[in-house]
Amino acid sequence: MFVKKLSDTLITPAHVTGDAFESRRILLAADGLGYSFHDTVVKKGSTQRLEYKNHIEANYCIEGEGEVEEVSTGQVWPLRPGTMYVLDQHDAHIIRATQSDLRFICIFTPALSGEETHDASGSYAPPG
């Protein structure tokens, strides 16, 4: 067993920020669990197009209001606390933080190393 705190992540390279987001990567591939666990904030007013071609991602909203759009169909779902969306088909999607910052608990499989950056398509490179 081991214990980690969000505050410990904030002082490491596992705390990644950008113009539209802040990702606090609490569990990573080095933890040996096969998945990674993130506390992520999408900043109010931002729009991000993402597509994880090499990972499956589950996102559980714990704060804020916004929406997620499935690019292939144009279908839009509202996001607010208690809502989960899962990218089980490597779905291209658009996240919009419309009313406030959005905060998610996210799980990626396979696990992220913590050093990934989004490529031009909004994806991460395959692991290893």
Automatic annotation (TrEMBL):
For the protein in the UniProt heading, the enzyme class is lyase
Gene3D superfamilies noted in UniProt: Jelly Rolls
Task: Write down the chemical reaction(s) this protein catalyses.
Answer: (2S)-4-acetamido-2-aminobutanoate = L-ectoine + H2O
Query: What is this enzyme's EC?
Result: 4.2.1.108
Pathway per its UniProt entry is: Amine and polyamine biosynthesis; ectoine biosynthesis; L-ectoine from L-aspartate 4-semialdehyde: step 3/3
Keywords on record: Lyase
Q: A single GO BP annotation from the record?
A: ectoine biosynthetic process
User: Which InterPro entries does the protein's record reference?
Assistant: Ectoine_synth, RmlC-like_jellyroll, RmlC_Cupin_sf
**Keyword Lyase listed:** yes
A Pfam family assignment: Ectoine_synth
Molecular function terms, GO-annotated: ectoine synthase activity
Family (UniProt) = Belongs to the ectoine synthase family.
* Function of the protein: Catalyzes the circularization of gamma-N-acetyl-alpha,gamma-diaminobutyric acid (ADABA) to ectoine (1,4,5,6-tetrahydro-2-methyl-4-pyrimidine carboxylic acid), which is an excellent osmoprotectant.
Query: What name appears for this protein in its UniProt entry?
Result: L-ectoine synthase
Q: Which organism is it from?
A: Roseovarius litorisediminis
Q: What is the lineage of its organism?
A: Bacteria, Pseudomonadati, Pseudomonadota, Alphaproteobacteria, Rhodobacterales
